[in-house]
């Protein structure tokens, strides 16, 4: 019988153990089959009673559950929560390092920060005139506190109001804190089941100051007797936060990427940093492990291939560890995850889709602004959203395909936008590429456009959000369907939708709305969210590599090589339309994603998650934390 850790690894990879290194005849079907198997294994770990849940907690966490665990369980049970202990793993990953910090220090740091929420005697407040995001989180917590029998302990919850990660603590510091945070399970008769009050904390700590030492996008350099400011590469803060032997920690920083005049070496151009064959950590070129696929510590080339790495919109980062909560983070950043306000607001609209699968267009839809960072004339080719739109623009693909046979190695398969290139060896065995029909095929199913090019403020904007330096490569949709008020047409009229990281992850909350609309969600991300442990790749959504090199193979598997204009004479239209798509498999994913989201990503599930998070956080910030716990089930 596999351990729960093995089950979790299997779920997130979509693979069983020994088969991982063997490429099956059809990698996608293999990944889907194993995702279903590991999902069934996960469901078998559900607990059915308070006593069973407490026992599972002790076995997995090495501690007694926190005070108030019984009230939390009854609240969760009343709300119909699927009780799988692994669904709360992110909480313990996020809070783990704080066990290595003195409780009083954690309390003082949290209390001294202005951008925070405070809970006192069940009342949730934030500073007047604060950021709208803080107020929205406050409303969510107060909605929880208003339920009968919910008793939230006193805590201060500092929040990151920026979209980008704000805490990148060096790996060695985190490792030291974790080494000091060994779990301890006291005898039941020595356990205290009551949190300390923070009623007098405001007066006691009125003069306490804590400076996170926020680091911005500019860095002082000494040049002889003078000092000057230059760019601070975001990657220079990412790298120390990665494990010592990880690829990102070992690889050099591409300093030329941040040259103020755009002087970049040929080997560090956007196109040169893209994979020249099947990406690593994949099965036949397709994502086999979602944890690895989203971990920037595994992909040093992302420093020049993702907007958040190249030029964050709001670079304000601390390397000091303290309690800081946020709605998303990168794999190596140290925030404590909360459901985002947009998650909270979207979930209330969960309901049955308005159109059946047969009524939806057999197309991949994406609309969005050119965000993910601050794009400029010198860096836009490095932005992931620009690359995705280029790859699904028929004119760009047509030129890139013509370049596959070019004699000049620097232009082989290169698109006019110079931000993507086709794999010259057709490693994905695309039928459409074999017959030089990739461009018309893409044109048949891709409906992808920017809604705003987000031109750099130093350049003039064209009409409808255009841009001087990218306007020649991209058109701008006059209006995004999903921006229409009270209208979800974009989510329900297409069979396939793409979810790409914006600023700070799924900033438009596309994932929840697309899952609820029963579409096949193609998802690429460098960010973690509170719900990641609840969704199974290749069962509830289709994972993509962050370079998007696998998108053509994914779409050919599902929609087939069908196009009325594909390479006339190479295949008859009838041959192209027969048997090479997998529409039934696509429908299965759309239905599984919708049905599961409506069970585990509801407003109620967010409240259950936050409730447990607050209980665990309050214990860590309590001077008596070693002795705090819930043991009523053991005392009889």
UniProtKB/TrEMBL annotation:
Keywords: Transferase. InterPro entries: O-Glucosyltr/Glycosyltrsf_90. One of its GO terms (molecular function) is transferase activity. It comes from the Eukaryota. This is Glycosyltransferase family 90 protein.
């Amino acid at each position: 019988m596999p351990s729960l850790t093995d089950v979790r690894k299997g779920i997130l990879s979509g693979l069983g153990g020994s088969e991982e290194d063997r490429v099956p005849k059809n990698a996608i079907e293999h990944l889907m089959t194993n995702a279903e198997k590991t999902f069934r294994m996960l469901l078998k770990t559900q607990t059915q009673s308070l006593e069973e849940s407490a026992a599972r907690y002790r076995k997995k966490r090495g501690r007694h559950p926190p005070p108030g665990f019984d009230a939390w369980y009854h609240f969760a049970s009343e709300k119909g929560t699927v009780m799988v202990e692994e669904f709360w793993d992110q909480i313990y990953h996020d809070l783990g390092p704080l066990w290595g910090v003195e409780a009083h220090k954690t309390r003082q740091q949290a209390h001294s920060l202005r951008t925070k929420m405070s809970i006192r005697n069940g009342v949730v407040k934030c500073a007047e005139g604060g950021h709208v995001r803080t107020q929205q989180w406050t409303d969510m917590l107060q909605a929880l506190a208003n339920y009968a029998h919910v008793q939230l302990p006193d805590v201060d919850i500092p929040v990151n109001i920026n979209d980008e990660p704000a805490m990148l603590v060096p790996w060695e510091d985190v490792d030291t804190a974790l080494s000091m945070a060994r779990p301890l399970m006291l005898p039941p008769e020595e356990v205290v089941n009551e949190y300390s009050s923070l009623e007098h904390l405001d007066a006691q700590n009125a003069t306490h100051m804590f400076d996170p030492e926020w680091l911005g996008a500019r860095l002082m350099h000494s040049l002889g007797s003078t000092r000057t400011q230059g760019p601070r590469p975001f990657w220079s803060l990412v790298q120390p936060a990665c494990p010592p032997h990880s690829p990102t920690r070992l690889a050099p920083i591409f300093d030329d990427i941040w040259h103020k005049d755009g002087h970049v070496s040929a080997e560090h151009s956007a196109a040169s940093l893209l994979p020249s064959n099947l990406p690593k950590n994949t099965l036949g070129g397709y994502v086999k492990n979602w944890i690895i696929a989203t971990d920037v510590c595994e992909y040093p080339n992302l420093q020049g291939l993702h907007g958040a790495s190249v030029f964050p919109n709001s670079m304000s980062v601390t390397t000091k560890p303290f309690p800081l909560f946020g709605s998303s983070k990168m794999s190596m950043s140290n925030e404590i995850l909360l459901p985002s306000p947009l998650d909270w607001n979207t979930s209330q609209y969960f309901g049955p889709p308005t159109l059946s699968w047969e009524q939806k267009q057999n197309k991949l839809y994406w609309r969005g602004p050119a965000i993910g960072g601050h794009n400029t004339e010198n860096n836009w080719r490095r932005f992931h959203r620009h690359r995705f739109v280029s790859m699904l623009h028929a004119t760009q693909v047509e030129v890139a395909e013509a370049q596959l046979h070019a004699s000049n190695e620097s232009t082989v398969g290169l698109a006019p936008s110079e931000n993507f290139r086709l794999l010259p060896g057709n490693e994905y065995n695309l039928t459409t590429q074999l017959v030089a029909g990739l461009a018309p095929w893409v044109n048949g199913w891709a409906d992808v456009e920017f809604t705003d090019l987000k031109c750099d403020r130093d350049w003039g904007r064209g009409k409808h959000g255009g841009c001087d330096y990218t306007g020649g490569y991209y058109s701008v949709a006059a209006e995004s369907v999903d921006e229409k008020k009270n209208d979800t047409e974009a989510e329900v009229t297409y069979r396939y939708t793409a979810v790409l990281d914006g600023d700070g992850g799924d900033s438009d909350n596309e994932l929840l709305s697309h899952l609820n609309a029963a579409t096949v969600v193609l998802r690429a991300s460098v960010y973690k969210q509170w719900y990641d442990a609840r969704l199974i790749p290749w069962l509830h959504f289709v994972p993509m590599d962050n370079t998007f090199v696998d998108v053509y193979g994914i779409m050919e598997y599902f929609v087939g090589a069908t196009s009325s204009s594909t390479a006339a004479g190479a295949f008859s239209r009838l041959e192209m339309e027969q048997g090479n798509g997998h529409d039934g498999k696509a429908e299965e994913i759309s239905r599984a994603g919708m049905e599961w989201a409506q069970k585990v990503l509801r407003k109620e599930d967010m409240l259950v998650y936050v409730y447990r998070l607050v209980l665990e956080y309050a214990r860590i910030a309590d001077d008596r934390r070693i002795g705090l716990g819930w043991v009523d089930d053991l005392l009889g």
